[in-house]
Amino acid sequence: MKLSTKHLLGIKDLTTEDIQLILSTATNFKDVLQRPVKKVPSLRDVTIVNLFYENSTRTRFSFELAEKRLSADTLNFAASNSSAAKGETLLDTVNNILSMKVDMVVMRHSASGAPHFLSKHIPAAIINAGDGINEHPTQALLDAFSMIEKFGSLKGLKVAIIGDIMHSRVALSNIYLLKKMGAEIMVAGPPTLIPKYITEALGVRVEYNVKNALQWCDVANVLRIQLERQNQPLFSSLREYNLAYGISRKLLESIGKEITIMHPGPINRGVELDSDVADGPSSIVLNQVENGVAVRMAVLYLLSGT
Amino acid sequence: MKTILSEQQVALTVKRLAHQVLEQHLKLDNTVIIGLQPRGIFLSDRMVHELSALVEPASISYGKLDITFYRDDVRTELHVANKTDIPFSIEGKQVVLIDDVLWTGRTIRAALDALLDFGRPSKVELCVLIDRRFNRQLPIQPDYTGRAIDTITTQKVKVFWKEKDGNDCVELIS
Q1: pLDDT tens digit string along A208-237?
Q2: What CATH number labels A137-288?
Q3: Are B75 and A45 within 8 A, CB to CB?
Q4: Is A243 helix (H, G, I), strand (E, B) or coil?
Q5: How far lies B148's CA from each of A191, B128, B129, B132, B145, in Å?
Q6: Which of B66, B76, B113 has its CB closest to that of A41?
Q7: Nearest-CA neighbor of B81 among A214, A302, A70?
Q8: Cα distance between residue B12 and residue A156, in whole Å
Q9: How far is CA A111 from the centre of its chain?
Q10: Where are the extended beta strands (E) located within chain B?
Q11: Angle, in degrees to the nearest 10, between helices A137-151 and A169-180
């Protein structure tokens, strides 16, 4: 049994069977990570390059750890201290790395579609670790894994994605995945940060009032305000955003029901999420990070055979 | 197609294997039984059932081991992983590994690697229902054998279990 695709470019290309296979394999890897020897020899003959054209802590560490737990050899690339800074093109850089016998590429890039472009030109398997404002498939998979761990299934689960929907690749990948797995989805945030026609295009509910969204949902996936991707001000100030759309303990208590809080990180504390919520009992933020390693091990393992 | 073991023979063989293991390990107090996923666990389930009639059931340590991530053919064929469940330490224990068919020896090689990641057993033994004696690719031999048979590479040995396939028997398919 294997995945229907050679690369993981986005959730959009995956079938529900693919998603189920990845998540069930991740369960096995999560078991491996609880053992005294947290390592298996599956990919000991595979070399993987982590090509990060954009900053990252969690995702890069998570991929690197996943690769090491699978016994793969890893190379790390950061655009800021490489020849990319001298003007080398993406394709040149990758072809040079591949000529040193590298089998898989994990890639993050600020341009949407960069891994798709690469997949048309190189033979290695490519895993998208986030491309611009398009997709971040492994984040959506680990979010799904964490939700299933807590609720047993995604079917009929009410998930509100709150915040900067417009610039979020996490939101898009989550919407694709949750739809395929039968969850109900609502996006909430300021009108300037929610794309027009999103209901028509993706079939999600839209809500501009965060309290209403919280009242509706079982899970709130709170997104980071991505100041680096906004080239014009879309709300007046961070403080005003916090007052209108931030999740505070007081707001959660006023709902009167238990809501699971998720966040893909890094958290802007006091903007989209207050500290006492982020660190509170209903937050599964750190479980998400823990599950990230197992989910990425599953993806790497399943794509290595092709 | 030829029947190697009938339903009655499977039952008798399982009983004998359980007695043979007990003969070597008496009270099973320093011994653990580990069945190999996915198909070895039917045999290990049966043997543990037999053993619990012979010794104090609480003294039997029984685990299941999945070797998918330790295989040496990951690059040619992808297998779906199963659950590993070893809820005790194997450090210093005598381990009886149980699988349905021993042939090339590669599964057992992977199982030994997987097992050693859980600790350092004092001894590892191998118990199989069927030993296909020809075409071994690694120096691995069973300690307890249900039935040893001589086959050629193109033949297939299939072990059927009531729980999974509806009836108990072992067949040789040419």
Answers
A1: 999 999 999 999 999 998 877 766 778 888
A2: 3.40.50.1370
A3: yes
A4: helix
A5: 74, 9, 8, 6, 7
A6: B113
A7: A302
A8: 50
A9: 16
A10: 2-5, 31-36, 61-65, 94-102, 123-132, 144-149, 156-160, 169-173
A11: 50
Nearest-neighbour CA in chain A from B76: distance (Å):
6
Could you give phi then psi for residue A22, rounded to 5 degrees? -60, -45
The B residues from 111 to 150 touching A (CB cutoff 8 Å) are: 113-114, 117-119
CB atoms within 10 A of CB A262: 26
Q: Could you identify the residue written with the tokens 């695709």?
A: A5
- pLDDT score, position B27: 86
Cα–Cα distances in angstroms (integers) from residue B45 to residues B35, B38, B53, B60, B110, in the given order = 8, 12, 13, 12, 21
Domain spans in chain A, listed from the N-terminal domain onward: 11-135+290-304, 137-288
Residue A52 φ then ψ, to 5°: -110, 100
Strands B156-160 and B169-173 turn out to be antiparallel
ipTM of the complex: 0.82
> Between 3.40.50.2020, 2.30.29.30, 3.30.1300.10, 3.20.20.70, what CATH number should domain B8-150 receive?
3.40.50.2020
Token duo for residue A298:
């599953």
Give the type of residue at B63. Answer: G
pLDDT in tens, B14-42: 999 999 999 999 888 899 999 999 999 99
Whole-structure pTM value: 0.90
In what order do the strands lie in the sheet containing A125-131?
A: A73-78, A47-52, A104-109, A125-131
- CB contacts of A29 in chain B (<8 Å) are 69
Of the candidate CATH numbers 3.40.50.261, 3.30.70.1560, 1.10.3720.10, 3.40.50.1370, the domain formed by A11-135+290-304 belongs to 3.40.50.1370
B53 touches chain A (CB under 8 A): no
Tokens for A155, please give them. 């079917």
CA atoms of A212 and B93, how far apart (whole Å):
59
Q: Are B103 and A74 in contact (CB under 8 A)?
A: no
Nearest to A272 by CA among A257, A301, A251, A289: A251
Sign of the dihedral through C-alpha B85, B91, B93, B96:
positive
Is there a contact between B5 and B124 (Cβ–Cβ < 8 Å)? Answer: no
Contact assignment for A301 to B70 by CB distance below 8 Å: no
C-beta neighbour count of B35 within 10 angstroms = 26
Cα–Cα distances in Å, from A46 out to A72, A115, B5?
Answer: 5, 20, 43
Fold match, A11-135+290-304 / A137-288: yes
Instruction: Give the β-pairing of A104-109 and A125-131.
Output: parallel
